[in-house]
Amino acid sequence: MTFILADRLLFEPRAQISRIFTEGFYQWLRYFSSDKAKLARAFEHMFDLSKFHVAADGGKIAAIAALTDGKTAPIKLRAHHLRRHLGLLRGIITYLVLKNQLQEHKYPFEIADNVGSIEFVASAPEYRGKGAAFALISHIMSTALYNEFILEVADTNTPAVRLYEKLGFSEFHRVKEPHSKQSNVNFLVYMLKKIPRR
Fold first, then answer.
1. Domain contains 82
2. 35 lies in a domain?
3. Kindly report the CA angle at 154 between 106 and 81, in degrees rounded to 5?
4. What is the rounded CA–CA span in Å between residue 106 and residue 71?
């Protein structure tokens, strides 16, 4: 398996990244459409490939994870793409909601300059449970020049919480989810790992 920034791949990765993103976050995205293929096509435009790292297995992407400074979003939604694939009304609603929740999402605390934010971690369905996401995040943390890494995870996403704990992350903050009945999430949990650098 190869670990590489998506913009350095020798093939066009957007369709695969979008499919993995849609599958991984379908619990929240299904409110905009129950059609996963339609959602994947609608979101294909939005990924900043210079911020998304991938675990590539030949021509297949096994896992994705974005790395940012916690202040710059790794995605940029465009309303006309969403309208084209989801329809006028649904496209506008999707744009407004996701722009607020994903693109303009802010952490509920200050982020120092030496902290990297790991975001949108997901594995392709056929690679789940095979260590692709674990290996990808390990690679990111060993090569990126940050002293600390943070991430956000839903408290009900037990497999993800276990993965991050196995990687050495520990919870340091949590925020009550205001729409818990709709999202099936009680809290957004923030986890931290410090990296000793020489």
1. yes
2. yes
3. 60
4. 7
The model scores a pTM over 0.90: yes
Residues 87-123 have pLDDT tens digits of 999 999 999 999 998 999 889 999 998 999 999 999 9
**In which residue are the tokens 């196995």 written?**
166
21, 30, 73, 86, 113 from 66: Cα distances, Å: 11, 22, 9, 25, 17
For residue 24, the domain's CATH number is: 3.40.630.30
* Distance from C-alpha of 134 to C-alpha of 141, rounded to nearest angstrom: 11
Domain interval for residue 31? 2-148
Query: Which residues, including other chains, have CB under 8 Å from residue 9's CB and lie 6 or more apart?
Result: 54, 56
In the chain, how many domains are there? Answer: 1
Whats the size of the chain, residue-wise?
A: 198
Answer whether residue 18 is part of any domain.
yes
Which tokens in the block code for residue 108? 């509920």
Q: Which residue has the tokens 């995040």?
A: 137
Distance CA 46, CA 81 (A): 9
